[in-house]
Structures are given as structure tokens and as C-alpha cells.
Amino acid sequence: MPVAEGQTVAAGAVLIELESTELRAALNQAELAVQQAQARLRQLREVQAPVAEQALGQAEANHAAASRALARSRDLFAQGFVGQAAVDEAQRAEQVAAAQWRSARQQLAAARPDGSDSALAVATLEQARAGVEAARARLRYATVSAPVAGTLIGRNVEPGDVVQPGKVLMVLSPQSAAGDTQLVVQIEERNLRLLHLGQAALASADAYAQQRFGAELVYINPAVDPQRGSVEVKLRVAAPPAYLRQDMTVSVDIEVARRAAAVLVAVDALHAADTPAPWVLKVDGGRARRQAVTLGLRGNGLAEVVSGLRAGDQVVPVTAAAAAALADGSRLRPQPEAGP
After folding, report:
1. Parallel, antiparallel, or unpaired for β 294-299 and 287-292?
2. Which residues, 6+ apart, have CB-to-CB distance to 271 below 8 Å?
3. What is the rounded distance in angstroms from the CA atom of residue 227 to the CA atom of residue 189?
4. Three-class secondary structure of residue 218 per DSSP
5. b or e along 173-202 (b: 16 or more beta carbons within 10 Å of the residue's beta carbon)?
6. What is the DSSP string of 291-303?
7. How far is residue 90 CA from its own chain's centroid?
């Protein structure tokens, strides 16, 4: 293992090398099988095909001679010079020569480039070559390389350990294509309409909540996670702080819009804020009046009121229990400010 935890590696760098003696022997065996198949194909083309052609010529000559001998025997039998036994023997010899001629012709046809023996030899060679590729692929499995550039943040194996398929050997924190640090954040899908690429953001790690750094929205996942009802987004951090670590919990404020002279109300004064009909308790002539409002942007504990309230209106911030006891029209009495 030529790498250590905390080391930055390039894509393709060797991380782990497994014992490969047996795999290399299998590759050598497969390469020898290819050589054997190539030699068999050469033997077929350089030796067997010419020999089969010569054998066919010899069989043709023998068959022609046997055919002439049979014709002579039949003529002599017709003239009474030989008996039936001689004719039968000549006919048998002619049939044997004909069978040998047919066999030689078939052997030559099989040995030719378009014949069955050649096809079998070529198929055997291709099979041996495929065996070499398979052996090479298995040998490549013995070398574990970095799929992408990144930083090694975990190593769960040491030299000499026996490993099994499926065991996590190392953990690599990948870099983006440009080599920048990225924040991966889950955003509620109801806010998807507010997001677009290039938006600026401020982020902070929960471990360093008072230290904020800039980021930029560079990716919005086209799919929604049905289990969590959220959308994954990624933000590029051009100048990451030194304390930022892989898998840190971060909080991100994305600026989705900017309003001038907006009317704001504290979130803790809103009722049914996540429904289509939010409302507040507005102070009207010393009484609490239920007032429907239309909300706009939200953030940092405040919500924009598009309609329903004007600048300077007072609202009653109450808990859920107090809201149930405080009916519309209830008289309000100002409380004195607490002393020092």
C-alpha cells in the first residue's frame, strides 16, 4: 500500500496491490494456450492442407486405375478368358478406390480455409484469446486504483491482511472535476422553486458556528428523494477554511432573492405558517384581531409579509397554548417592561 491516510492522490493512482502470483500463472497458462492454438492453425494450413491435396491426387489416380481394371475384367469375362471371381475382385478394388477418393476429397475440403477443420481451429484460437483477456481482467483486479482524485481519509487494512470481496479497504474523499471543495446539502422540495445555479450562499460548520465562509450553488439534483422529501444540491467553496473536514455537518444560508423596504414579521408570531392560509394576531384598538397574511421570502427568523400588514402594525407573539386561549377580539393589556 503506497499511500497513507491524509494523502492526496490523483485519479488512477495505485492504492492497494493484492498478492497476484496465482493470477499471473493463470495469465501465462492462457497465453500458452493461444500459442498452441496458433500453432495448430499453422499446422493445418502449412501441412495438413497440402498433404490432403496430395492424398486426393493419389486417390484419384488409384480410382482411375481400378475403374480401368474393372472394365478390362468385364471384357475378358465376356470373352470367356476369366471367371466371375476375377470380375468380383476387380469390382471390389474399384469400390475401395472410390471410397478412398471420396474420403480424401472430404479431408481436403475440411482442411481448406473455408472448411470445418479450419473453422474449428480458428474458433479454438479465438477462445484461447478470450481466455487471455479474462485472465488479464482478473489480474487487474489485484490492483486497486483511485477512481477519482481525492484525499484518503480512511484505511482499514494493513499489509499481510486477508481480504474478502465486499470489505471496505479504504475511504477516499473525492474532489470535484475542478478540484474544488463542495458542500452537499439536502433542501426541502417546497423550496426548489427558489433555487437556481449561481446563487451565493454563506455556510458554517456546526463545530465552528461563528466562522462563516462563502459558497456558490453549482448543482441541483433533477430527482427528489421520496423518502425525505428533499432535493440534493451542491455548493462550490472557492476558499475553504482549513478546519473544514469530510462529512462535517454544515449549515447553509442561500440568498434566493433580495427585497428593498420589505415588511417583516417574526416567525414566532405566525400561525399556520406552512399552510396556504397563514395568519397573525394583530393589535387593533387594544384587542387581538385575527389577520390573514400572505407570506413571501423567509430567513433568519423573519418572514416577508406581502399583504395583510403594513409597516408599524403590531402583532402578538404567542405560544400554541396561549393562541388557543386568546380568541379573536380578546382585550389586550400592555405589560410593563421588566426592570433591571
Report:
1. unpaired
2. 278, 279, 280, 281, 323
3. 12
4. strand
5. eebbeeeebbbebebeeeeeeeeeeebebe
6. EE-EEEEEETTEE
7. 77
The whole-angstrom separation of Cα 335 and Cα 318 is: 14
Q: Which residue has the cell 468380383?
A: 88
pLDDT tens digits for range 230-242: 999 999 998 888 8
What is the pLDDT, as a whole number, of residue 340? 47
Query: How far is the CA of 64 from the CAs of 54, 68, 85, 94, 251, in angstroms?
Result: 15, 6, 21, 8, 100
pLDDT at residue 31, as a whole number = 94
* C-alpha to C-alpha distance for 236 and 85, rounded to whole angstroms: 105
Give the model's pLDDT for residue 87.
86
- Confirm if 293 and 280 have CB atoms less than 8 A apart: yes
Give the containing element (helix H, strand E) for 74.
helix 49-79
Residue 314 identity: Q
User: What pLDDT sits at residue 257?
Assistant: 80
Q: Element (H or E) spanning 323, and its range?
A: helix 320-325
Tell me if 292 sits within 8 A of 279, measured CB to CB: yes
Distance separating alpha carbons of residues 121 and 41, to the nearest angstrom = 6
Q: Which residues does the chain have with pLDDT short of 70?
A: 175-179, 318-329, 332-340
Helix (H) or strand (E) holding 42: helix 21-43
CB atoms within 10 A of CB 90: 22
Contacts of 113 (CB under 8 A, 6+ apart): 45
Reported as half-sphere exposure (CB side, CA atoms, 13 A), residue 20 has a value of 16
CB-CB contact of 234 with 293 (8 Å)? no
Bridge pairing between strands 14-17 and 143-145: antiparallel
Per-residue confidence (pLDDT) for residue 219, from 0 to 100: 93
pLDDT at residue 235, rounded to an integer: 93
Residues 6+ positions from 9 with CB-CB distance below 8 Å: 3, 15, 146, 149, 150, 151, 152, 172
pLDDT at residue 139, as a whole number: 93
Domains of the chain and CATH, by start: 8-18+145-172 (no CATH), 21-140 (1.20.120), 176-254 (2.40.30.170), 264-325 (2.40.420.20)
Cα 190 versus chain centre, distance: 30
